[in-house]
Every structure is written in structure tokens, then in C-alpha cells.
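To: structure subgroup
Subject: Chain for Friday's discussion

All,

I'm putting the inputs and outputs inline so they're searchable in the archive.
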Amino acid sequence: MTTFATFTPRRTLLASLIAGLAASAPALAADVVINQLYAFSHSTASNFGHDFVELYNRSDAPVSLAGLQLQYQSAGGSSWSSVTPLPSVTLAPGQYFLMRGARDQGKNPIEVFDVQAPSFNMAGATGKVAISDGSRILDLVGYGSANLSEGSPAPSSTLLLSLQRAAAGCQDTDDNSADFVLAPPVGPRSTVSPLQPCGDVGPAPKPIVLTCPATVQVEQGRGGSALLSAIDGDAIVNRATIVAGGVAGITLGQFTPAGAAGGKAEARLDIADTLAGGRYPVQVEFGNDADETERCTVNVAVAGILTIPQIQGAGDTSPYANTVQTARGVITAKVDGGFFIQDPQGDGDPTTSDGIYVYGTETAHPVGTLVSVTGLVVEFRPNGAERTYTEFKDVTNITSLGAGPTIAPTNINVPGTDLASVEGMLVRITNTLTINGNGDLANRGELTLSSGRREQPTSRYPQGSPEAEALYREHMANRIVLDDGLFRAPAAMPYLAEDGTVRAGDTIDNLTGVIDFGSTGASSGASTGFKLQPTETPVIERANARQPAPVLPEGIKVAAANVLNFFTTFTDGRDAWGRSGQGCELDGRVSAGNCRGADNSAEFVRQRDKIVASLAALDADVVGLMEIQNNGDIAAKYLVDEINRVTAPGTYAVVPAPVALGTDAIRVAMIYKPSKLTLVGGALSDGHEINNRPPMAQTFMAANGGKFSVIANHLKSKGCGGASGGDADQGYGQGCYDATRVLQAQRLSNVFIPQVVAAAKDPDVLVLGDLNAYAFENPINHLTGAAGMVNLIERFVRPHAMPYSYVFNGLAGSLDHVLASSSLAPQVVGAAEWHNNADEPKDIDYNIENTGTDVYRKNAYRASDHDPLVVSLNLAGSTTDVTASSKIVINGFSINRATGKTTGTVTITNTSDQPLGGPLHLVLNGLPAGITLDGPSGMQGGAPYITLPQASIAPGASVTVATAFTNTAKRNFIYTPQLVSGAF
């Protein structure tokens, strides 16, 4: 089994450790003392729903709590993990003060208190609590096996009893074992409770201090015993007897009196093997030679022997919940912190599971051993869960009964099987499962599995539609999480192949293991759910192999690429050029804390190399970049230089930034190939306040004279910070800020696109980028509906495969888009996504973090969390060859021997039935060397041309133009005439 680097408990995350005081020698005879302590709220059978600490002023004068604090430390710890400052309250003599601590599963939540500290989560059996002034410990209670206490530790608190200071709070001998007794809780009391002054706070008679287990659990038919003891500091404990709850089969035997004052008396509580199953509260009284007595209650729990199916029951919860039972089963799997057992026969009822999880106890018995287990049956409800999971906890007995019969896995399908009916059982999933989520490999060792890929409902159907809602419900039923048998972060990510990845879309057959239920990682799509703990090594098939960059039909290639916070300034205050003291600007403020990319130079190099590899492989002629640092063209220029370094000098250039770049720390940018395209005018942007990241537009001209404009966008994210009203999550799956994104889309279509078209004098527009909206959410519906744009990914990809550029919570969908204006759409000859990012585990990216073994590889995969998109344009030129619609006659030449000039005329006749629109140009192709046209209107493709003076030529009409050539060779020559319509 894999070992792990850090531990995350199965049930609740521990509060972060708070540095505090080192434990020092306690003060003597404190005025304000810890009077009562209860730390056992973690069980549904607990007396209270909160931990609490009750303070008491035992002095005869008022005492202020100003500057004091309560602090908690684990039994073996050396630093205070919870520190709670106390308010400036003055306690009168005999006045109480109550701190309410962590909330858990117990009964009777505490409603009246003086200060609350939810992170004050004390261990029930053993720990340390102190009052401190910040430099000294004024009072200390160590209980259980605590490594620090006043004198000897006090006994452990129990589910039903609290630790209470003797003599009604007035005793403080600086010996916790002598000063504290276990008793049914009083109160708890706060500052509003009646005062009970001590009067004389001098030495008080020492009480009889009992050590009695709260519960003794035995298996029916086996019997057992428990040891009880009593100590009195100033008297001899000399007798013990059962005074209540005595029944046949429970006796008090082997009493040993104390040998002297302060000595220990012991008695053994014997439970016969004939005692019937049930719970027997037994009250035992100890007495001393001063005729003083003290009592404790021991709950004898005799576990009846039940089958696992009987314990599981056919309902949602066990009919034996919160009772102590014994069951027999074969160990089928051992996991971190527990194991699974299964009834070898079962009851044949498909509604009652034959397996159960044993929590909180590891066993040395191997898998396949038949064991008898005695413990408390509980219904475990993970945080956020709508259902519970039946399991054993507080186990008191695990007995080997030898090798058990072989447990054959039960065949199930996912979806199709009610997993609650097989919880805790060994199963084999017979259908092929597909990996849909891999974002929790590093922190939890989990993969989210389903039958087939699951598509974001609003990436396929309009948000709020019945189809979208039905698909969401279908997805929720079609999910199980493959775990790794551990409930903590792995030392190395499991399930990675030799190439260092496991991709969404890969598949698993015949997955075998036990069905578990509990908390799951964020990328699974739910906080809790059913999991499978494998008992056989899963065999993962690379069904979704890494592919090279898409190959599209020949044309101008335009790409959209999210570069995942490519910053040349790092969060440690340094930058790509080694300078320190640098920062990033956000909303007009500059600090290193505003930087979002690499934390340091080492991470930056890893990030840079992946992004460069990805963009170089795309080999697009224009790339719209999202999530690049908003520092003018500095980051974009750095990126271009690096791409050119691995391709060829001058391959790419930066489109100079427009004026308005927004106030966010990131911006959109563009790079292009100067050898393929020419910039037409400068870049534009829309700095309207609705655009937190202004869209950027640039018009380009191709070699054939065709023009088109690219608008790069990064709309408002789906995160919910600060969202309200129409921007709040409406529950249709679109996340937050849908209303803002709609306004941004409307601003884009109604204002910015018309501005770009007017400046370009050309209607051909591509809108691309991270629109943070799935394909059928409102912003996209507006652009493809009212704005008349064409979704190119839907047009070219959907007919052949599920389109997606992003995987979130195990659902794949298109957050990134390329949309074409109606005039440009017919000129698009191909569109594709490159799934080099979204399907990859996030923790194989550039970050250097605590993910176990470093699996980073210098390649184009997981360069970002979004997949890049690319389209190919077969641009119509700005001119049209109309030679076929005309008759062109080159009339005779005349050569002037003196000047070396050759003159002539050319007659052009419109032979079509439509006017030949202008401007019209006569192109003289193929002139020999040494022959040049005098006074040409211009050059096109290396040939001179003459622009006709006529705007057009009517059908049947003719136009004659004169030509003059410099003919230094004074020889005859020919050329090929061509008539072109349009603007060069």
C-alpha cells in the first residue's frame, strides 16, 4: 500500500495549528480555575452537542479575565493548538464563566455561554487545557494520558460524565488526579448562573477520586471484566459495593482496600457469559474510614450477535443504530484507519447489504480471515451528505475465527445498481467505466468514473431547459469515485501511466473492490458520494491517447489559447530577468501579492516551456491569448521571443497593445506571423466598465488581399465572490455572473463589433476566447442568435464528437469558443480543439508543490487548464479575375529607335451580359527582362498593372488604353494580359 506524506482525517479536518506558549510549570492556587470540562461531544450518544470548559472564581475577591486566554494541547503535544482570548469580564467571588467549544454530534447543544470557540476541539479521552496570561500558565488540567498536568493527570471525560473540580470548585491542591472527579455534568454554568462563593478558600477535605470506565462492552456468550479504583488523599478507601442496577451475572469481586490514606483501592466488575444482550447501567459506591462515599456509573453493554445483513437492514438506516452489537464476517479489504468485513453466506435479500465498514480500528489479521467484531453501530453522515453510511466504530473486540470462506465479488453495473444496497460489499463492476475527473489525484488519490464521458448539460442544451435538467440528473446517478484505500494525501500520485499521466477519457474494465461512502474531492462534482476502494489493481486503458496538434485544411490558421496566468513577475517579488522587489498591478495597486502565475523562477521556467511547446505545435498564424499578465506588451513580447527561439527568428510578432487594457491583473493579447499576415491599422479595445478584461481587436490582411478581424475575449468568470441578484447562481448549472456575461456579450455585438467592422471596412470577424459560458448558455445564445454569429466548434466538431475545452467537476464542456460573422463563416474550412490540457491531471502542471514525486515533464501537455482552439480560413481575396468575361486585344506596337520606347494600345471588351464592376485593372503578366511598363498604376504579384479610368464596363462596351514601354533591347516582345476587378 502506498505511503502518504500528510494526513487528512476521514471525518473532519483538524483546525490549523496555532503557535502558542510552551508548557511551563503551573502556577499555584489560582484564583480563577478550570472548574468543569467536557470533551466528548463527538458521538450521537454524547451528553452534550458541544465541548465546553467552565471557569470559576474560587477566591473571595473579584477577578478580571482581561488579558487571559484558554488554550488546548493534545496529550503528547508541545504547542497549544487552540487559543481563545477571554473577554474583559470581571468575575465576582463564586461566579462562573463558560466557553462553548466545538460542535459535534452529541445531544443537548449548549445555548447559554459567555464565549464561543468553534476551533476548540478537545480530544475526549486525553488532552491538556490551561488558563494563561500569555506568558505564564495560571491553571492547568491534564487528563487521561496527558504528558503534562498538575501532579498526576485527571481521569478521562466520558460520553455521559464530565471532569469536575472537587469541593464544588473550591479545591486546588495542584494535583489534577486529586482535584478532579468524574460525575454527571452540572449546568454547565455561565456568568448568568447563581453565585456560589467558597467562603474560606483554605485547604478543603479531599474527596474520594474514582476511576471507573463509562462503558464496558462484551460479546454475548463471552463475558468480561473491568477494573475500578478509588483514592482518597486524607482517608483510607476500605469498601465497595453495587448499590444500583445489580443483576444476576454482574458482580463485584476481588476488592483490595487501600493500604493507607492516599492509597488506591481496587475492585473488579465481572460480567458473566450468561448475561443476555442489552445495556445494564450499574452504580458502584466506594467508602472510606471517615464514612465518606462516592459513586460512579458503569454502563455494561452486552452485544448481541447479529448478522451483517440484520445490522444493515432494508431501510435507509440500521435498525440497530447507536447500539453495541457483535457480527461475524470475512475481512475483504483493509484501508487506512479501518477495514471491511462481509457475511460469508449473506441473506439473499438484495435490499440488505452483506458488508460493513469497521471504522477507527486497524487489524493485523489478514484479508480472508473470519473475525468477530464487537462495537457501536452508527450511521455516519459526512459533512454535506444527504444520506448516511452504516458502520462499526468504538470497537472493543476483534477476534479471529480462522480462515474464512472465499468471498466472491458481486457483479454490478454503474449506473444501474443502487450502490446503497451493496455498501461495504466486495463488488466487480462489469461494464466499462470512463475516467471523467482526475483533479484529486495529488490531494486524495481519487479518480471520478462514469459510464462514458459526461457533458456539461448547458454545453449541449439551453440552460434551464428540461433536457439540461434531465441530463444533470442522469449524470449524478452515473458516477463513482475510485479511491486508493487511504484517507490522506498520497506520497506519490497513484494510477499514473509510464508517460506520467492518466487522462479523462481513459477507461477501466472489471474494476473490483469494496463500496465505500464518504467525502470526495472537489473535482468529483459533489462533496460526498459512493467510492470504490480497490482490492485488485485497476487496469487503465489509454482509450484517450494524447494527440498532436490538429491538422486542418490549408488556409490562414487562427487559434485561441488560454495560457493559465502567464506572468513574467512572480509571487515571490522577482521577475523573469532576475530583478527583486517587483509586483503586479491590480485595480491601480502594485504588489507581488497581485501576481497569479509562477511562484518563483523555477516554476516559471517549467510553465514557460510547456506554453511555448503548446503554441509552437499549434503553428497558428494568429493566436488570441487569454490570462497573460497585464503589463503592456512585456509578457507577450517575452513569450514571442521564446517561441521564436524554438522555431525561427521572426516567426511571430506581438500585435501592439491597444490603449485600454483594463484594471485586472490579466489581459487578452495577440501574436501573429508577419510572414503570413499584415496588420491593418492599430489594435482596438473596449474599455467600458462592464468589461473587467476589455476585448481586443486587430484587423489582418492576407497575401491575397483578403481581410479579417480577430476579437480576443475573456468574459467574467463563473466564480461567485460578491455575486448577487441576477449574477447569483440561478441553479441551472451556469454558475455566477451569467447576467454580467450577457451584458458583455450584448456590448460586444451591439457596440464593439460594429466599431471594428467600421474601422476595418470589412465585415469578416472572428470572436474567440474564454467566454466563461458553455455553448448553450445565455451569452453564447445571444451571440449565435440575435447577433447572427456562427459557432464554428459546434459546426465542425459536434457532428463527429462531443465538443469540450474544459473539464469541471467531472463534466466536460466548451467554455472557449470561436464564433464567425455571417460573412466570414462560408470562408471557414475547418475548426478543431486540441485536447492537450483539459483531460490531463492538474497536478502534473508546472507547479512545484507537495504532490509527492515530481511528475513534471517538459512537453505541451497540461500547459493550461483550457484546451486551445484553432480554425482555418480560406479567405476570399479582395480582387476578382474577370478576364474570362472579357475580350482583350493587344493592338500593334510602334518602336521609336531614337528613344527606345515601344508604344501601343490595348482594347478591352465586356463579353458578358453583366457590367464589369470596378475599379478595373489591366495586369501585364510575363514581361521579358529588359522590358518595363512606363508609369504603371502599381505592381501586383511582381507584374505591373494599369488601372482603367472607367468605373465599370457595360455589357458589349469596349475600352482602349495606351501603353508605353522602355525597350532598351529594341526587340519585339509579348505579355499575357489579365483583367482584375477590385482594390489592390
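Points worth raising on Friday:
Residues 208 and 292 are 8 Å apart (CA to CA).
The two ends are 72 Å apart (CA to CA).

D.
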